[in-house]
Amino acid sequence: MNVFRFLRFCGSASYWSELSDSKLQATEGAKQVERRDEKLLLSFQVITDTHIVADMEHEHNRNLDRALKDIAMNAPQSSGIMHAGDVTDNGEQVEYEAFRQIWDSNKAGLPPLFVTSGNHDICDDWERCIPLFMSQTGMTGMYHDHWIDGYHFIFLGTEEGIGLYCTLSNEQLSWLDAKLGEDAAPDKPVFVFLHQPLKDTVAGSLEAQNWYGVTQDEELKAVLAKHPQAIMFTGHTHWELDAPHTYFDGGGTLPAMFNAASVAYLWTDEDEHKDGSQGFYVEVYADRVLVRGRDFERGEWVEGAQFEVR
């Protein structure tokens, strides 16, 4: 059975009330956000940049195993693990097989996995790597969407390989616009995933940092600006969750966006590599979404990365 299960879910349409412009609110003094005693409507995790290699003893592979064990232990109600790309380090079949081996050793306690591609998965030899990525993940296209327990999840992906950047066709952008408009409600979130961040939004994407990477940056921003109920998660930069700009509040024109760090290794504002493994636990309640940074290596919450989208 293929480890990558891209399923379509149906569920009741529970939704928010009194959404206020999709604004993010970090907790005062970097304290953990308040988790009130009320019904949890949906929960899922966001991981990215696992960079799996053929060597099963490599730190990247051990970090993925550790992250999956953390999720299995702490999120028994999870509806899915959302992977924002760079599943592999070089887009090789043996690396997908290593990923599958790690997943299979943990799958008894895990929810379904949903994936989009990263630049390491596609590489420059995109005519070979795109079909391999699709065959190994079970994807039927480079972009896809799913309804999970009544909430809409949309995955974007490059349609060719051009180094670090992704390329989104006009057809994909029109598709996104239409999908974001399906059963649109201003008080119900829609979750969007893309490997590369938009310029001058989240950590690593600032012009001086130079880790943005969407060829159609302005065109994608124009689509997202029409749909403030969206919440977007990206990878690519590896920036640690303690860094400034882990979240982007939209600047008054765009939806909320998050940098999801990396499971394999981290990067800092000093432009330096850092050992570590991080991602997000996401919880949806009637009036807000909690986005909670998790340190998988230490098995701890990242106190400076606990946010609310109301």
UniProtKB/TrEMBL annotation:
Gene3D superfamilies: 3.60.21.10. SUPFAM superfamilies: Metallo-dependent phosphatases. InterPro entries: Calcineurin-like_PHP (IPR004843), Metallo-depent_PP-like (IPR029052), STPP_CPPED1 (IPR051918). GO terms for molecular function: hydrolase activity. Coiled coil: none annotated. Residues 46-239 form the Calcineurin-like phosphoesterase domain. This is Metallophosphoesterase. It comes from Paenibacillus albus.
